[in-house]
Specification:
182 residues, alpha+beta, Umud Fragment, subunit A, eight-stranded antiparallel sheet, four-stranded antiparallel sheet, 3 helices, 12 strands
């Protein structure tokens, strides 16, 4: 009986085939979900402190903007505009103004349409000036919550809406800071 390999039984072949189908389906679902539904992102810098810290991990809803327009205060993940001259694959910032709004920074305060923006989430008030600027159609004005240490729209301008990748909605790491983002 040396050198003989037992023929697999039809029942064993069925089990193996069921495993192969299950694993294949799981992989297809995982790839589909990551591509179209939810993606995880790691925070690489302190530009969104104190809301998000370096190393935090967040989930981004990739289909949100298929059904809804971006709103002021949304935390968005986007490809940097060409004016930012960055090679980064994705940035995360807070929407401050949407198309048609007039945004201004003066007296350590952000104004949208002439009204001061209440910002309990910022690390410190902005120490720069931005003259009144109308947000063009199809774009957003975004700032990091760490106003004075964020490379954002006050430096490189507007984000085309088409650059949006996802709306950040939850932090899942570290475990002691898990929760929804606001």
């Amino acid at each position: 009986m040396e050198g003989k390999v037992a023929n697999p039984t039809p029942r064993n072949r069925e089990r193996v085939w069921e495993w192969v189908k299950s694993i294949g389906l799981a992989l297809l679902l995982a790839i589909g979900i990551r591509t179209a539904v939810v993606e995880a992102f790691v925070i690489p810098s302190g530009s969104m402190e104190p809301t998000l810290e370096i190393g935090d991990r967040v989930l981004g809803n990739k289909f949100w903007f298929w059904f809804a327009e971006p709103h002021r205060r949304d935390i968005v993940i986007f490809s940097p505009p060409t004016s930012a001259e960055l090679a980064a694959g994705a940035l995360i910032k807070r929407v401050i103004a949407v198309e048609g709004d007039v945004v201004e920074v003066r007296d350590d305060q952000v104004f949208v349409n002439g009204k001061p923006v209440i910002e309990p989430y910022v690390k410190e008030r902005p120490q720069y000036i931005l003259p009144p600027t109308r947000v063009p159609q199809g774009t957003l004005f975004v700032l990091g919550d760490n106003r004075n240490a964020s490379y954002d729209s006050h430096v490189w301008g507007f984000v085309p809406r088409s650059n949006l990748k996802a709306k950040a909605f939850a932090r899942y790491w570290p475990l002691n800071r898990i929760g929804l983002l606001q």
